[in-house]
Amino acid sequence: MSGAGIAITGFAVATAIIADYFIKIASQKEASLLTWSFLIGASLYVLSAGGWLFAMKTMTLGQVGVLYSVVTILALTAMGVIWFEETLGWREGLGIFFALLSVLLMSRFL
Asked: Structure pTM?
């Protein structure tokens, strides 16, 4: 995994996480699709896709997919627990452990 690929994937993930925040806010309103939160979230997803495109130029699809997925899982879990007061059970904890293990298994450094 190249440093540039990791940085670009980080940008794509950060943008998608912010988009997910706005989509979650929109989902809690009546007429969710007509809210500013939904429009902002959808626009950020488009921006995230641009980052995805450039990340795929520097890493294999498997590497970028696993890295993107794991970082997204960790960030969304943290967001849910911190900002939306969601609970984290043992199954989620076990899932996070295996997600982190998948990054190690997909790494070309092993």
From this structure: 0.71
